[in-house]
Specification:
single chain, alpha/beta, Alkaline Phosphatase, subunit A, four-stranded antiparallel beta sheet
Length: 487
């Protein structure tokens, strides 16, 4: 147990002994209990939401007052990268690694497609295990999809979460499991079942609030991978009659904003607001069938693409007394940075024996510094092009295309490791004017600067790293010869 946690426990025990000796049966008021100086961490990951749908980022077709208030009272980041699709982003958050290293380059829906694939806690790092082992109480609620709870019912505990309430993900022909919103199919330590008459993200939000209440005198890490506002487009408890995909998308974003407001209200009610860092981001851009208006420009959703609309997503960090207020930060950060950054905030280290691509960036995350440890950041991966072989799930590409960017310029690199496009994002945020052949001195310097890291990447991207689980009736068929089939 870390020294500061031991000291806190001993002092709290001493207070309880004194209270008992005085015949005081009532618990000590919260203000009299010495708090752990390390912050609580509430990490909220929205699903499929670009900057064009948060009004603090200039969205014009919606209002998100709770997110706006958090941005106004905290730090809003302009240059934050995720991966262009669900699975690569989520694994990068959990492992602190880029997809070429952790292997989940493509999307793979584990409960639906099986194949023995899973996020293997014995062979990969886990941010929850890092924080649990540092003395944090850990909870998660929401969407998972990278383990099959029919085969691994205790996966969340093994990965470091002591409390959980998860949508299972669609389990093939089990129609009930497809439901994440109305009458959601939810996995708990007691098993998986339909919650009749409930709305999924309501269940998850209330569960996390209960966890906050139960552990308010201990350091906590709460991970909330929301289902909202991912399709299927649906009504919400706040707008039960709304119709049409765009209108329902807007209602779903508004409801996500309301749930975030509910969590903030709970932190205030429990006197945890100043003890808690609230971090809000998304796993990729908005779905491509939804268009929004931002700063006067129509923006089509960029999910699955390495355009800025697909990978440069909102990041809002708020923590009264800890995070710079009212700041817009240009710092370069990525989804892989959270594991090492959270470890530093918790006074510990990432798990040994692994290589991490993320960097501890506490000063930047708290808005105290305008630069992070990165001189460039990377995004890659996505699409449903992985296949099952006799050796397990493998990615379609030997070397997947990717993009690298700094504060101003962005370089696209193809599957042959060749730079193919360069954009000046300051002048061309829509990436319409390819400068790769430009002889301008500033552009040429940017091209050389962003091309230099290519020599350091492995020649072959990893495939997902796991020991295959026993075959199941719902597994997809083997459709490729191991390694030979790759592009």
């Amino acid at each position: 147990m870390p020294l500061q946690t031991t000291l806190l426990a001993s002092r709290l025990f001493a207070c309880l002994v004194i209270a008992s000796s005085l015949g005081a049966a009532a618990p000590l008021p919260a203000a009299e209990i010495r708090r752990d100086p390390r912050p609580n961490l509430l990490f909220i990951l929205l699903d499929d939401l670009g900057k064009e749908w948060i009004s603090a980022y200039g969205a014009e077709d919606i209002r998100t007052p709770h997110l706006d208030a958090l941005a106004a009272g905290g730090t809003r980041f302009e240059n934050f990268y995720v991966m262009p699709q669900c699975t690569p982003t989520r694994l990068s958050f959990l492992t602190g690694q880029y997809p070429f290293r952790h292997g989940w380059v493509n999307h793979w829906d584990v409960p639906r497609w099986g194949g023995g694939a899973h996020y293997d806690w014995n062979r990969n790092p886990s941010v929850a295990r890092v924080l649990r082992d540092a003395g944090y109480r850990t909870a998660v609620a929401g969407k998972w999809q990278i383990n099959d709870f029919r085969v691994q019912p205790a996966a969340m505990s093994e990965l470091g979460f002591e409390a959980y309430r998860m949508w299972t993900g669609g389990q093939g022909e089990d129609a009930a499991s497809d439901e994440r919103y109305w009458d959601p199919y939810i996995h708990t330590p007691e098993g998986s079942s339909t919650w009749r008459g409930k709305f999924g993200d309501d269940v998850f939000t209330e569960f996390l609030i209960d966890f906050l209440r139960s552990h308010r005198h201990e350091p906590m890490f709460l991970y909330y991978p929301m289902c909202l506002p991912h399709s299927p487009f649906t009504t919400t408890p706040a707008e039960p009659a709304v119709a049409g995909n765009l209108q329902r998308h807007q209602a779903m974003v508004r409801y996500a904003d309301q749930l975030i407001g509910r969590l903030i209200a709970a932190l205030e009610e429990l006197d945890l607001r100043r003890d808690t860092l609230v971090i809000i981001t998304t796993d990729n851009g908005t779905a491509g069938n939804i268009t929004g208006t931002r700063h006067g420009r129509k923006v089509r959703g960029g999910k699955s693409n390495t355009t800025e609309a697909g990978i440069c997503v909102p990041l809002i960090v708020n923590g009264p007394g800890r995070v710079a207020a009212g700041k817009i930060s240009p710092a370069l950060l990525t989804i892989a940075d959270f594991l090492p950054t959270f470890a530093e905030l918790a006074g510990t280290q990432p798990q040994p024996g692994y290589t991490y691509d993320g960097r501890a960036a506490v000063g930047a995350l708290l808005g105290r510094e305008d630069r992070s440890p990165h001189s460039w950041i990377l995004a890659m991966g996505g699409k449903n092009d992985a296949r099952l072989t006799r050796d397990g799930v493998q990615n379609a590409w030997v070397y997947r295309d990717r993009v690298l960017r700094d504060e101003r310029f962005k370089l696209h690199v193809d599957t042959r490791r060749q730079p193919t496009a360069l954009y000046d994002l300051a002048e061309d945020p829509a990436e319409e004017r390819n400068l790769i052949a430009s002889q301008d001195a500033v552009v040429a310097a940017a091209r050389a600067r962003l091309s230099a890291p290519l020599a350091g990447f492995p020649e072959r991207d990893r495939d997902p790293i796991y020991t295959p689980l026993p075959p199941q009736p719902w597994d997809v068929k083997i459709t490729a010869e191991s390694q030979v089939w790759k592009k």
